[in-house]
Design a protein that fits this description.
Strand order of the largest sheet: 1-2-3-4-5-6-7-8
Number of domains: 1
Strand content: over 45%
Distance between the termini: 37 Å
Radius of gyration: 15 Å
Shape: globular
Helix content: 10-25%
């Protein structure tokens, strides 16, 4: 391994770990609950379509949030992010978001709520 790369890995492990987790979680999902079984996995970000993670963005129904400031969660395969969102023409602070792998796909945790998304 090149010395410069080794130094970068030692000095900046969190962004690399965050990028690794985001790349593993990138893709299309639907809520992992029976009442959402009819959601399709084709139309990203639309009612009844897929939700997902793409290019560092958390894409929900008619909104998208940029995920920044990655912080690893010790002892868990999870990462905390700050989020800045856009939805229906309005930009807003999306707060802290935790993404964690789950057997079906991922858990998405925000203040006061946790949902599981099933990979499409």
């Amino acid at each position: 391994m090149r010395p410069a790369l080794l130094i970068a890995l030692l000095l900046f492990p969190a962004p690399l770990a965050a990028q690794d987790l985001l790349s593993r979680l990138e893709g299309l999902y639907r809520p992992a609950y029976p009442e959402y079984a009819d959601w399709n996995c084709r139309a990203l970000g639309q009612d009844g379509g897929a939700v997902g993670i793409r290019d560092g963005m958390l894409v929900g129904t008619e909104n998208a949030c940029a995920l920044t400031t990655p912080t690893p969660v010790r002892g868990m395969n999870a990462m905390l992010f700050d989020s800045t969102c856009n939805g229906e023409g309005v930009r807003y602070d999306g707060g802290r978001v935790m993404l964690m792998t789950s057997p079906a796909g991922l858990y998405l945790v925000r203040d006061g709520s946790a949902v599981e998304w099933q990979r499409c």
